Amino acid sequence: MGLKKLLPPSELTVVANTADDLWISGNLVSPDLDTVLYTLAGMIDRRTWWGIEDDSFESHDFLKSIGHRELLALGDLDRAIHIFRSDRLRKGRTLSQATEGLCRALKIEEKVLPMTDDPVSTMISTPEGEMNLQEFWVSRGGRLDVTGIRFRGIEDALPSLGFLAALERAEVVGEPVLIGPSNPVSSIGPILALRGVRDLLKNMDRREEKGEKGEKCRVVAISPLVGGGRPLSGPAAKFMRAWGYPVTDQGVADLLGCVDLMVVSPESDYRGPSVRLDTVMKDEEDSLSLARKIVKILDGKMETEAEA
């Protein structure tokens, strides 16, 4: 939200994870894409940071009353977005094309891109078997032990053409890449696991070494951990441990594997190149304040701590 207020639309491109996507009642629900769309359109429910503000749930409640169970409680306006998207997919459009149509319809000027147009699903292994991320988190409340996590379909999935174009532009022009403070395994992990993406980001800062002209592109990541090692919400800690990483900022950096600079909380013991900021956002004022500092970091105007 803060970056939207500070940056011209032409300077903000958002790539969203689609490994959380699932079909519900005949329509494709894309939770991360929709959260981005609703936020940029100014219609996000600010109490939950998902769904549409003041949405009703009559269709969901009526379906439940006639014996049709839905994994997620879909609002009526939210469901209309899923119908819009799914109708275009059935007509042969890609997810990228459907998302572009939604941006036009919702008057979103910023560029919003799905990470891929191919189906990918985050699958969680538990003592009770393997299940979709939404089944684990929503239906089971995230209570089960996690013994493994994989991205089904990732081997055959390619980055969307828009995503590839954005990466190429960042490399050529030297635009910064910002990785937000989302779950590093289930929200950022699928994006980086797409063929060639992590390696491309890892090698972007070698332009000067190769004698190439132009500004160096930096990859900046905001840690999802606060207080030195506590995720604000979600199963990030459980997922990091399942992948064998410590729940620390160093663990986040190692898991991502392509970061030049970490934004960490003041209490962090991270020893790599970093900026220490209070990243907890309790309201829009906090969001805007943090966004201003992040823009300074991306522009190289804020002092960083060198690697110890």
Characterise the protein shown here.
The model is unreliable at 207-215 (pLDDT under 50). The protein has twelve helices and 13 strands. A hairpin with a 2-residue loop joins strand 5 and strand 6. The chain has two domains: 20-114, Helicase, Ruva Protein, domain 3, CATH 1.10.8.240; 161-298, CofD-like domains (Rossmann fold), CATH 3.40.50.10680. The chain is 36% helix and 15% strand. Strands 8-9-12-13 form a four-stranded parallel β-sheet, with no helix packed on it.
CATH architectural type of the largest domain: 3-Layer(aba) Sandwich
CATH class of the largest domain: Alpha Beta
Identify the strand order in the major beta sheet. 8-9-12-13
Structural class: alpha/beta
Question: What would the CATH topology of the largest domain be?
Answer: Rossmann fold
Total helix count?
Answer: 12
Main sheet characteristics: 4 strands, parallel
What value does the average pLDDT take?
91
Terminal CA distance? 33 Å
What number of structural domains do the residues give? 2
Tell how many strands the DSSP assignment holds: 13
What characteristic shape results from the CA principal axes?
globular
